[in-house]
Design brief:
This is FAD:protein FMN transferase. Keywords: Cell inner membrane, Cell membrane, FAD, Flavoprotein, Lipoprotein, Magnesium, Membrane, Metal-binding, Palmitate, Signal, Transferase. By secondary structure, the protein is of the alpha+beta class. Helices cover 30% and strands 29% of the residues. The chain starts with a helix and ends with a helix.
């Protein structure tokens, strides 16, 4: 991000783009924002859309989100909110209220595995400042007393929240990148652009088709820490738009005394997850929901996560290791999608 989950778990999804044919104009924008990179590819049907103006609007949109949601900026709204040690109602932006509302739903449907109050644990393990270490159990136990989505009361209609525990800290990095993708996609559509691919730090949304009429093709990376290979290619045939987000344990981790610790922390135990699931890719109409679910399901593991995906009718690709072998498991909803 700075609020980029991909700065935390790096680039676990990337994309293939075919060359366009003559006819419709295909344009690209790219840049650096929120501590990561972004790429936009779109089909322009109107001469009224000026790329320079559009690029400026994209940059402004991402900068506005960053100053509200980044946990890596001391001057951001969420950082200021975390410094408020009070149990009084606090006003928040619509963005924060909306993200908390999504997170509460996903948390309730994932046995609490998506928990935005995990910040004390994330700080304790050193992932916030990339100074990773194994903490003492007593420190973990102390941090856990301040963790739990039930410690936040949300009034979404009035855009305000109440911290039942003044020491609660909120980390939006598991969900804000997807929100950013959605915001840029909405900007494009407001400009009349209906065929596009928006990618921010590996999270993306695609809509329509490429200029040559082909479907967008998304390549899911093989979840291995020291190589960049393709595990699977998904063709997206979705005129209404489709978000594709991935969360993984295999990029951001550290090793101590022969044991590997992932940055995906179970908010129930206060410790990094210890299962065989390596990556979760979610396809969803909304990138914010996709981003929330990929983290939740990854935390849950290959079995419990699959059950949650089935129960919530989610389109999900799970990649896990079975001994030295990588295996895939596809939810029933994703299996119905023609490839």
């Amino acid at each position: 991000m700075n609020l980029s989950k991909r700065q935390l778990i790096a680039f676990s999804t990337f994309f293939f783009l075919a060359a366009c044919q003559k006819g419709q104009e295909e344009a690209e924008l790219s840049g650096v924002a929120q501590g990561t990179t972004y790429h936009i590819k779109m089909v322009l049907n109107s001469p009224d859309v000026k790329l320079d103006d559009l690029h400026k609007a994209v940059e402004e949109t991402l900068a506005d989100i960053d100053v509200k949601l980044s946990n890596y900026r001391e001057d951001s709204e969420i950082s200021k909110l975390n410094r408020e040690k009070t149990t009084q109602w606090l006003p928040v932006s619509k963005e924060i209220a909306d993200l908390l509302a999504v997170a509460k739903v996903v948390s309730a449907n994932s046995n609490g595995c998506l928990d935005l109050t995990i910040k004390p644990l994330f700080d304790l393990w050193g992932f916030s400042k990339h100074e990773m270490k194994v903490p003492e159990q007593a420190d973990i136990d102390k941090a856990l007393t301040h963790v739990g989505m039930d410690k936040i009361e949300l009034d979404q209609g009035q855009s305000r929240l109440l911290k039942k525990d003044p020491e609660v800290g909120i980390d939006l990095s598991s969900i804000a990148q997807g929100y950013s993708v959605g915001a840029v996609a909405n900007l494009l559509e407001a400009k009349g652009i209906q065929n596009y691919m928006v990618e921010i730090g590996g999270e993306m949304k695609v809509k329509g088709r490429k200029a040559n009429g082909d479907e967008w093709r998304i390549a899911i990376e093989k979840p291995t820490p020291f190589s960049r290979e393709v595990q699977k290619i998904i063709a997206i045939n979705q005129v209404n738009g489709e978000a594709v987000t991935t969360s993984g344990t295999y990029r951001n981790f550290f090793e101590e005394n022969g044991k590997v610790y992932s940055h995906i922390i179970n908010p129930k135990t206060g410790k990094p997850v210890d299962h065989n699931l390596l990556s979760v890719t979610v396809l969803h109409d909304d990138p914010t929901w996709a981003d929330a679910w990929d983290t939740a399901l990854l935390c849950m593991g290959e079995d419990e996560g699959y059950q949650a995906a089935e129960f919530n009718h989610l389109r999900v690709l799970f990649i896990y290791h079975d001994g030295k072998e990588l295996k895939e498991r596809i939810s029933s909803e994703l299996a119905r999608v023609p490839q």
